[in-house]
Design a protein that fits this description.
single chain; about 325 residues; alpha/beta; Spore Coat Polysaccharide Biosynthesis Protein SpsA, Chain A; 2 domains; nine-stranded mixed sheet; 11 strands; globular
């Protein structure tokens, strides 16, 4: 029984249970003495929104992405397009078209160019340059739905103890059937076995800066996964809106889908070692979840002599089953 029951609409306090469901809601409420970093840069208004679009050789896709941001019901106060060393004529041409259109129509757009340093570095460049109180990162091949920023900004303004707001995604691509990703709420310990935070999660600019931004060591789409774990580990929950407010493009040549088994294991080990202290608190639960995934594969009709698909590659079943288990126990044995 709670001594002081929070109001049903107090989403930020209820979301604290995502940090550790073994703790009672009363414990979370009693320990809820953390305030959000709120230092704004001179000239940056309260409630302002920065959207950072990252691009490396995206061609027509980056034009679609930026135009979807401009079509938002809640217009961003600034749009930062980080060109991470593109050199192809198609991509550079589309960026020029966007610059011309933004100038003509009065749309917010600032182009920042840098030599190719990877996605994490490009996002950190945007984080450094951003002036908004809230910030969202959008990959240059994805599309945002018009309602997302309006809904997500309102939630963050109303609940100061929330670290971020994400949403479900529709899946599309040239070589796949259309689908959807109804990601579960990001919470421990589940977040250590599967990334459930969909970019463009809207968060607080000052909070991300206080956490140090993205870890450039994390590549192949692990940088946003690691940052999500870091946010929760720091006591800032993230909630997912149960609406399809993003269109996530699947490409066969993306970093994640072209990742080798060895690269994946290196990234997994780095993820666990970076958050060894937090992961150790959930060692039993993480091991049980990995075993559950194993059992699902074992009883899915695939034999140990058969093969299965993983990240766009065909790999022996035994290798896929053992990879996550070895990664976890290598870090905690």
């Amino acid at each position: 029984m709670l001594l002081s029951r929070p109001k049903p609409q107090d989403l930020s306090r209820i979301a604290l249970m995502f940090l550790d469901r073994r703790m009672s809601l009363r414990s979370h409420v009693q320990n809820d003495n953390q305030s959000s970093p709120s230092v704004l840069r001179p000239g940056a208004g309260k409630g302002t929104l920065s959207v950072v679009v990252t691009c490396y050789e995206m061609g027509d896709m980056v034009k679609e992405s930026v135009e979807s941001v401009w079509a938002s019901e809640r217009q961003p106060d600034e749009v930062l397009l980080i060109d991470d060393g593109s050199y192809g004529e198609e991509t550079l041409g589309r960026i020029k078209e966007l610059e011309h259109y933004a100038s003509e129509k009065g749309h917010p757009l600032k182009i920042i160019r840098q030599r190719n340093q990877g996605l994490a570095s490009a996002r950190n460049t945007g984080l450094t340059a951003a002036n908004g109180e809230f910030i969202s990162f959008l990959d240059g091949d994805d599309i945002i739905k018009p309602q997302f920023y309006r809904i997500a900004t309102k939630i963050l303004e109303e609940y100061p103890r929330l670290g971020g707001v994400a949403a479900w995604a529709l899946i599309f691509g040239a070589d796949i059937a259309d689908g959807f990703w109804n990601a579960p709420q990001p919470e421990f310990p589940f977040l250590f076995t599967e990334n459930s935070i969909i970019v463009p999660c809207l968060t607080r600019t000052a909070l991300l800066r206080s956490l140090g931004g993205y870890d450039a060591r994390q590549r192949y789409n692990y940088e946003d996964w690691e940052l999500g774990i870091r946010m929760l580990a720091s006591g800032w929950p993230i909630v997912t809106i149960p609406m399809h407010l993003l269109k996530y493009r699947v490409r066969s040549d993306s970093l994640y889908r072209s990742m080798t088994d060895i690269q994946n294991q290196v990234m997994r080990e780095l993820l666990f070692n970076t958050h060894r202290e937090t992961a150790s608190k959930f060692a039993v639960e993480i091991a049980m979840q990995i075993e559950h995934q194993w059992k699902k594969l074992v009883y899915s009709g695939v034999t140990c002599e058969g093969k299965t698909q993983d990240n766009g590659h065909t790999v022996p079943f035994r290798r896929k089953v053992s990879r996550r288990i070895k990664t976890f126990f290598h870090a905690y044995h």
